[in-house]
Amino acid sequence: MIDALLSGRLAADPKPGTSRNGSAYATARVLVTTGAEDRLSVSVIAFDAGTVAGLLALTAGDPVTLAGELTPKVWTDKEGSARPSADMKAHALLTPYHVTRKRRAMEGEL
Fold this sequence. Notes:
By secondary structure, the protein is an alpha+beta fold. 17% of the residues lie in helices and 53% in strands.
């Protein structure tokens, strides 16, 4: 497990879910640019109510920054090549909406 902060775009709309104990969660897939044209696919799950609500308010293609526990993974494509990926248990998120709102609050506009 790695404590990480990552930024990327949602590959698809986040999906809500309910755990066996009745807790709400959300899952998402974020594409993170790692180089010139390389992208890392990160599977995200969130249990924190604020993070779940924030994810579910977004749609495919929206930019997002997430903080949480990152676990590196490797998967094999159809040609047999090893490809990197990662799983993240997100604890917090930040979107352009949050940044704009924070700036307005700091400038005394809210």
